[in-house]
Write a structure and sequence with these properties.
With 279 residues, the protein is α+β, with helices and mostly antiparallel strands. The protein has two domains: 130 residues, Roll (Diaminopimelate Epimerase, Chain A, domain 1); 136 residues, Roll (Diaminopimelate Epimerase, Chain A, domain 1), CATH 3.10.310.10. Helices cover 16% and strands 43% of the residues. The protein has an 18-stranded mixed sheet that branches. The longest helix is centred in the first third of the chain and has 13 residues. The structure holds 2,6-diaminopimelic acid. 2,6-diaminopimelic acid binds next to strand 4, helix 2 and helix 4. Homodimer.
Length: 279
């Protein structure tokens, strides 16, 4: 089976063109392909499929085989793939995802896509939409709430769904956070019935942040597009940042805007690295 290796600022996935290939059990295939020693190595796999309502359909499976609703860095690469490989020449184009149809504006360089601006849709803020358990009298959002881990450590967390769940924690100094230790504890906290992606954020000024991510189902990644979108929303909700920010992630930068129309727009690069044959 042929595959294409792509990344969005270092958040790397294996892309399979299911206009030409058939993948029977992606949840089992993802961990095998994603293994960085016994497989190809990636943060997961992404299937590119025909769609009756958009230019294509995307399904994303994390490195542990769990399927996610959406992938920001991934959808920029899907857009690049279907444009560069002539599945469509629309610009903007649309990608059907579990989190809804996304509209994507392409930036090209000598006729090939170098980056994209994605309408990530509207954030969901209600506790039940994250989803997050917890007693509450009425449906409320989760802003700057105390989350206590079983070992007694507690964090102030803001939760935002971009179709997939995100927990955002603002810290004064990212260098002091042990993300491997705390990320997994928060990901698997019983209050999150579908687990959660975890982002630690240092705010430099109202227009600029640095973030580090522990992803649900993949662990530490170099970037998270849905996560950066959620960070943009959380910054506004906590009155720490403006609606338009620059986010520095370990793998590179993303521009985010929670626009007045209620949608979050994410702008960033997309790269194709190599193609191969999986036996
Ligand atoms: N681990 C995520 C899916 C990948 C999202 C991320 N890689 C992005 O760029 O948005 C989840 O389980 O919700």
């Amino acid at each position: 089976m042929r595959f294409t290796k792509m990344h969005g600022i270092g958040n790397d996935y294996i892309y399979i063109n299911c206009f030409e290939e058939e993948v029977k059990e992606p949840a089992k295939l993802a961990p095998r392909m994603s293994d960085r020693h016994f497989g190809i190595g990636s943060d997961g796999i992404i299937l590119i499929l025909p769609s009756t309502v958009a230019d294509c359909k995307m399904r994303i499976f994390n490195a542990d085989g769990s399927e996610a609703q959406m992938c920001g860095n991934g959808v920029r690469c899907v857009a690049k793939y279907i444009y560069d490989h002539n599945i469509t020449r629309n610009n903007p184009l649309t990608v059907e995802t579990v989190a809804g149809i996304k509209s994507i504006e392409l930036f090209t360089d000598n006729g090939r896509v170098s980056g994209a601006k994605v309408n990530m849709g509207k954030p969901r803020l209600l506790r039940s939409e994250i989803p997050m358990l917890g007693k509450e009298i009425k449906e409320t959002s989760v802003i700057d709430e105390l989350l206590t881990i079983s070992n007694g450590i507690s964090w102030r967390i803001t939760c935002v769904s971009m179709g997939n769940p995100h927990g955002i924690i603002f810290v004064d100094n990212l260098d002091l956070v042990n993300i491997s230790k705390h990320g997994i504890e928060i990901e698997h906290h019983p209050v999150f019935p579908e687990r959660i992606n975890v982002h630690f954020v240092q705010v430099h000024n109202p227009k600029e942040v640095t973030m580090r991510t522990w992803e649900r189902g993949s662990g530490i990644t170099l970037a998270c597009g849905t996560g950066a979108s959620a960070v943009c929303v959380a910054g506004v909700l906590n009155k720490k940042t403006e609606r338009k920010i620059l986010a520095h992630l370990p793998g590179g930068d993303l521009k985010l805007e929670w626009a007045e129309d209620g949608n979050v727009y994410m702008t960033g690069p997309a790269a194709e690295v190599f193609t191969g044959e999986w036996h």
